[in-house]
């Protein structure tokens, strides 16, 4: 069994009030890198992935694929090569599996290659219940037997294509289904499936390996299974959630920044909802400029009614940008309702923003009303999850005085060297302990 991984405690100390300026490039999309690293197990040949975010979740998944026998080496700062010549359904470290949601993404590729996998339950952000039912539903229809008690036992005597209707458009279940379907015999149709940029990126990687997939970017995908899958080279696309985080950060610190290679084709819903907060960005080729001097005035709905920012399945506003929208709204003039429909505890972090001086009413676990602008005071904070942690970092950067964020390793699950990269723009963030490299 793999060695258990000790959890490192990280603290950020932030001096508020710094103006930022300059150019920043978003990292590769965390939620694309994770399924693509898992999908590299589908072939015994060499896979080379570039623009892979060097974040804690990816490092954890790399350890898991090594446990099942894959060779995985970082051949550059963000380049990962994987060769899964001899795979075995080895015992996986339960603590490591419980640390990331993406451990469940091993199911599809391991069923395809080894016909079995014993998986301790996955984890990920503690933001409410994380269903696995859709994974079971689709994998069973593609020919898997699943016995789920304390651990999940997946087994198949052969995957075969099916016409599958998802009970909900689950992102990771769609990714598992894609990996199983490309290796299955015959054709699979996935209906009511997810279509986020990371699902699209995985599909493009599978095509680079030799798979045949139609309907990328829609909620019906058709996979002609059984094509030989070879090694491939693939560049992970930019992280649209990180871009959303940088837009919010620039706006509340009244800074002008340029986000280089921002993946502008995936930003329509993000830009539309920031516009509702009086924040307008400029697209310049592949770059996105967030100008200083935003009006930061909430745009009421027709008739002067309170507007709403709500998340919905892609291509609408992403749930992972919701915490960023909340903190941004605290600095905008007017009142706005923010409605997050998926996770039951993602919004509870707003009590920390309220403690800093924000004017927010938590109506229920899914809705907050924010009335701004409010002057925020530096505070001692603890990050419960990736996006709430990022929202706290943004709040700290526009607050008066110094803030301390404990548990910042949560932020680093999803944002690569964010302290260093923001300091290069003029932020004043000290990481404790200092970074080794
Ligand atoms: C490793 C990974 O990729 N994690 C992402 C993945 O998790 P994960 O795959 O665990 O989330 P799921 O997609 O399974 O679960 C969320 C469910 O809520 C639905 N839904 C979504 C938005 C919305 O406003 N209303 C709604 O009902 C989704 O369509 C989905 O059916 O997708 C989530 C939803 O995007 C993101 O938060 C996670 O960062
Ligand atoms: C919820 C998230 O991640 P995960 O699904 O990996 O927990 C996220 O990225 O905001």
TrEMBL record:
One Gene Ontology cellular component:
cytoplasm
Show the SUPFAM superfamilies listed in the entry.
EPT/RTPC-like
The UniProt gene name for this protein comes to: murA
Name of the protein: UDP-N-acetylglucosamine 1-carboxyvinyltransferase
Show the Pfam families listed in the entry.
EPSP_synthase
- The enzyme's first-digit EC class, named in words, is transferase
List the EC numbers from the record: 2.5.1.7
User: Does the keyword field hold Manganese?
Assistant: no
């Amino acid at each position: 069994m793999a060695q258990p991984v000790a959890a490192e405690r990280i603290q950020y100390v932030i001096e508020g009030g710094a103006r930022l300026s300059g150019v920043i490039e978003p990292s590769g999309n965390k939620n694309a890198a994770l399924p693509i690293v898992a999908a590299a197990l589908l072939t015994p040949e060499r896979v080379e992935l570039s623009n892979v975010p060097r974040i804690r979740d990816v490092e954890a998944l790399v350890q898991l694929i090594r446990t099942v026998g894959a060779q995985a080496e970082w051949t550059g700062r963000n380049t990962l090569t994987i060769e899964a010549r001899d795979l075995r359904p080895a015992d996986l470290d339960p603590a490591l599996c419980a640390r990331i949601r993406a451990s469940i993404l091993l199911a599809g590729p391991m069923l395809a290659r080894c016909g079995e996998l014993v998986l301790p339950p996955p984890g990920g952000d503690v933001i409410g219940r994380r269903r696995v039912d859709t994974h079971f539903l689709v994998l069973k229809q593609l020919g898997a037997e699943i016995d789920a008690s304390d651990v999940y036992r997946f087994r198949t005597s052969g995957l075969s294509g099916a016409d599958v209707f998802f009970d909900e458009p689950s992102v990771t279940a769609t990714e598992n289904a894609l990996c199983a379907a490309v290796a299955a015999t015959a054709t699979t149709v996935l209906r009511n499936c997810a279509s986020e940029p990371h699902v699209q990126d995985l599909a493009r990687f599978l095509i680079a390996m030799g798979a045949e997939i139609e309907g990328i970017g829609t909620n019906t995908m058709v996979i002609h299974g059984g094509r030989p899958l070879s090694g491939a080279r693939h560049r992970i696309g930019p992280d649209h959630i990180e871009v959303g985080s940088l837009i919010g950060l620039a706006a509340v610190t009244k800074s002008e920044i340029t986000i280089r290679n921002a993946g502008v084709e995936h930003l329509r819903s993000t830009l539309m909802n920031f516009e509702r907060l009086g924040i307008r960005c400029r697209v310049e080729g592949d770059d996105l400029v967030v100008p200083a001097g935003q009006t930061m005035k909430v745009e009421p709905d027709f008739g002067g009614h309170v507007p709403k920012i709500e998340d919905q399945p892609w291509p609408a506003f992403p749930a992972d940008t919701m915490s960023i929208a909340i903190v941004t709204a605290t600095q905008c003039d007017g009142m706005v309702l923010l409605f997050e429909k998926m996770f039951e505890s993602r919004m509870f972090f707003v009590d920390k923003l309220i403690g800093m001086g924000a004017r927010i009413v938590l109506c229920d676990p899914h809705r907050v009303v924010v009335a701004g602008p409010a002057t925020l005071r530096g505070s001692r904070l603890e990050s419960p999850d990736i996006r709430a942690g990022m929202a706290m970092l943004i709040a700290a950067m526009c607050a008066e005085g110094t803030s301390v964020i404990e548990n910042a390793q949560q932020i680093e699950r999803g944002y690569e060297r964010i302290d260093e990269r923001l300091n290069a723009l003029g932020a004043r963030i000290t990481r404790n302990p200092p970074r080794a490299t």
